[in-house]
Design a protein that fits this description.
Elements: E1 3-7, H1 12-21, E2 25-31, H2 35-38, E3 46-50, H3 59-67, E4 70-72, H4 76-81, H5 84-88, H6 100-105, H7 107-116, E5 124-125, E6 135-139, E7 149-151, H8 154-167, E8 176-180, E9 185-194, E10 199-212, H9 213-216, H10 221-226, E11 233-241, H11 248-265, E12 272-280, E13 286-292, H12 319-332, H13 336-339
Parallel strand pairs: 1-2, 1-4, 2-3
Antiparallel strand pairs: 5-8, 6-7, 6-8, 9-10, 9-12, 10-11, 12-13
Helix pairs in contact: 1-12
Bound molecules: adenosine monophosphate.
Length: 341
C-alpha cells in the first residue's frame, strides 16, 4: 500500500489530511520538539521522529519510508532546510519534479526560468553601484522574507547590508540578490498542473502578511521616520483574496507559459502545485517577482476548497488533497513514473 509522507512544518497538516481523505496511509517526519503538536491530529497514521529533517537522507529513515512505500510531498521547509544537492540526493520518491526545486532556490536560475516563461519580471541589479531608485535586496533560497530590505541608493544599501552582517544574518553581498521594487497590490497565484491530464488548474490566491513591513502601516509617518530598525518581510500568515474575474484569463495564460517553459528547461517540467508571486499595478498588469515550484503555505487557507477549486470540483478539494488525488489516479493507470522523481 502506498503512503504519503511529508515533513512536520509548513503545510503538513493540509497535505496529510488530504492524503488521508483520499485513502492513503499518512506519515509525518517530525522533529521531536514538535511531536506533541502533531499528535493532536488523528489523520496522521505514523510518526518518524528525528532531531533534524536532514535525517531523511540517512539509511535508517530511508528504510522506514521504503517499508511503507512512501512518496514524499516536498514543501517550503524542505527547501529552506536542505540545499539543492541534498534535496536531489533524497532516495525516497518525491512527488513532482525535484530537479525544478534547484531553479526555485537559485536566484539566477529562477530569473532564467521566469524570463523563458515570458513573464513580466522586475529588473535584477547586478551591482549595488547600479542602484538608482527603490530596490529590494533578498537573500537566496527560501528565506521566507527574513533579512530582506529596501534601499534607494548604494549608500543606503551598504548601511543596511552592514547592519545585517553585524547581526550575523548574512555574510556579504554574495548572499543578496537585488531586484527593482515592484509597486502594486500583492497576489500569490496558486496553480496545479496535472501531468497526467496535461491540464492547468487555478486553485486560489492569497496575500502574505509579513512582519514587520505590514505592521509599519499602522504607525503614522513621523514615527516611522524615527524608527531605526530595518523592516523585514518575514511571513507570519496568509490572507485570502479573490481576483476581478477579468484578470483570470491572464492568470491562466501566465501559468501555462510557466509550465511550457519549465518543460523546455528542466525536464519533465513543472508537475503538481506551484505559485506565481507578484503584484498587480493600477492597470491590472501583473509583475512576477518570484515563483515557488511546489505547494505554498498560502494554500492552507483553502483546506475545504477555494472560490476557484469549487468551479472544478463538486467536493472540498484542498491542494493537499489534489496532490493525493493525482497520486491515486497515476497509481490506478500505472503512471506513477509521470509524477514522481
Ligand atoms: P520572496 O521571498 O521573493 O517571496 O519575497 C518575500 C516578500 O518580499 C514578498 O512577499 C514581497 O512582499 C516582497 N517582495 C519580494 N520581491 C519584491 C519585489 N521585486 N517588489 C516588491 N516586493 C517584493
Amino acid at each position: 500500500m502506498t503512503s504519503v509522507a511529508t515533513l512536520g512544518s509548513h503545510c503538513a497538516l493540509q497535505v496529510l489530511k488530504g492524503a488521508h481523505d483520499e485513502g492513503f496511509k499518512t506519515i509525518l517526519v517530525c522533529e521531536k520538539k514538535r511531536e506533541k503538536l502533531y499528535r493532536r491530529f488523528s489523520f496522521i497514521d505514523e510518526f518518524i521522529l528525528v532531531d533534524s529533517f536532514k535525517e531523511i537522507l540517512e539509511q535508517k529513515c530511508v528504510a522506514k519510508l521504503e517499508e511503507q512505500n512512501a512518496i514524499i510531498i516536498p514543501h517550503g521547509t524542505l527547501i529552506a532546510q536542505m540545499n539543492s544537492n541534498e534535496v536531489e540526493a533524497i532516495k525516497t520518491p518525491i512527488f513532482g519534479n525535484k530537479w525544478i526545486l534547484r531553479w526555485e532556490s537559485d536566484r539566477n536560475m529562477k530569473e532564467k526560468l521566469m524570463s523563458e516563461s515570458q513573464l513580466n519580471i522586475p529588473k535584477s541589479i547586478s551591482s549595488p553601484k547600479e542602484i538608482n531608485g527603490l530596490i529590494i535586496a533578498k537573500r537566496h533560497g527560501a528565506a521566507g522574507g527574513k533579512g530582506y530590505f529596501l534601499a534607494t541608493n548604494e549608500k543606503d544599501y551598504k548601511r543596511k547590508r552592514d547592519k545585517l552582517i553585524q547581526q550575523g544574518t548574512i555574510k556579504g553581498d554574495s548572499d543578496l540578490y537585488i531586484q527593482e521594487y515592484a509597486f502594486g497590490v500583492s497576489a500569490y497565484l496558486q496553480y496545479f498542473y496535472s501531468a497526467l491530464k496535461d491540464e492547468l488548474e487555478f486553485f486560489g490566491v492569497d496575500r502574505r502578511y509579513e512582519s514587520d513591513i505590514d505592521g509599519l502601516g499602522r504607525i503614522p509617518a513621523p514615527q516611522q521616520i524615527d524608527i531605526d530598525t530595518i523592516p523585514s518581510f518575514n511571513v507570519i500568515g496568509n490572507i485570502p483574496l479573490v481576483l476581478r474575474e477579468s484578470l483570470l484569463e491572464e492568470v491562466y495564460s501566465m501559468g501555462e507559459k510557466f509550465v511550457e517553459a519549465s518543460k523546455r528547461l528542466v525536464k519533465p517540467g513543472m508537475t503538481g502545485p506551484f505559485c506565481l508571486e507578484g503584484v498587480y499595478d493600477d492597470s491590472g498588469k501583473f509583475t512576477t517577482f518570484e515563483f515557488s515550484a511546489r505547494i505554498v503555505a498560502g494554500t492552507n487557507l483553502y483546506v475545504d476548497g477555494s472560490p476557484y477549486s469549487a468551479f472544478i470540483y463538486d467536493e472540498s478539494m484542498s491542494m493537499g488533497r489534489r496532490i493525493a488525488r493525482e497520486i491515486k489516479n497515476a497509481k490506478k493507470n500505472n503512471q506513477l513514473s509521470k509524477i514522481l522523481t
